[in-house]
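Hi X.,

You mentioned you wanted examples for the new student's onboarding notes, showing what a folding record looks like when two proteins sit in one file. Here is a clean example. The first protein comes first, with its sequence line followed by its structure tokens.
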Amino acid sequence: MAKKSKKQQAGGTPATVALTAAGVDHTVHSYEHDPAHPSYGEEAAEAMGVSPDRVFKTLVADVDGALTVAVVPVSGTLDLKALAAAVGGKRAAMADPVLAERTTGYVRGGISPLGQRKKLPTVLDESAGAHPTICVSAGRRGLEVELAPADLATLTKAVLAPIGRG
């Protein structure tokens, strides 16, 4: 059984533990998750009072048989064709949710691009660079982390590409 750090024991998630271990400046935002809300990302933006253009959702797709993480603004959708092209693939489709949860170690609506159980190739929508900070899931529903897009890209080794549609 893996030993948990004091931070994890105190309620930290693998994502927040990874940020702290890397010494990255970040702010954790917590809010009461409403299971009846139709969109996890829009709920986060509303609860934090942040523009949906600055709140990014983490989606897991299958690109030519390989799971790939896409991080796009909640105000838009993922362009699967652009995602495939960004990683040198031909075809992309949304991954099976159960497989995405098992592979990342997070539940749907709480999948973070950080601290995943298995590190997956990651593509961050280039619109992130237009903001000094963006928010992504901190690893559970009702918990977001705000950080500089460059720090997110560095920690996840993300490719920046135009994968979102507005």
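Then the second protein repeats the pattern, sequence line and then tokens:
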Amino acid sequence: MDKYEQRRIALQALVDELGRGGIASIAQQIGKDASYVSRMLYPAGKTGGKRIGENTVEVLARAYPTHFAHDTSNSASEPAPETPNDLIRIPLLANCGSMGTGNEVLDADYVVGDLALSSHWINQHIRPGNIRELKFIHAHGESMAPTFSDGDVLLVDVGSRDPSSIEGVYVLEVRGQLYIKRVRIRMDGAMEVSSDNINIKTVDVLNGDHQLRVLGRVVWAWNGKKL
């Protein structure tokens, strides 16, 4: 199997993992349209297919290191891949956060899979209080665009639940619904919850009457944007 077929297989696995909106997210990362990404998924020899070249692999490796970082080992600008002993399996939860009207909270944190990350990468880029408190979830909706998009995979630190300590994007449970919103503490001490999408931006100020739980802080959106 040549390197181009290996890249095609890795891309197909990424698309399958991202689910709905995955091809569009990948296209945005590499600066192409969705049809271009679809053609990269064609098997070798199929008319209209596109090989995944070196420049595209470098962009994909930065955005999706668990899938493509190993393919940049021939580049002097990229670090050597970590050894398997360095990998940490981060669980992917069935619960999905909504960037819109809300998703119902499941009765437990069901694990539907996992993704492997290098502990070196985690400690260099995320620096969590406890690696074991990192979880992956999917996000659905458009209210947090362009920070991240429908179908993105989000890395959440469930040990970081205090917006008064660190302002940022949090997973919130409100009346049995999961939301992903930006949270900040105002000068008067009230908690302000908002969306990033300027076209549908909403701002709520919580006065203590809301049945709200902070479940964790989003620390990385798997489109390569650190939060």
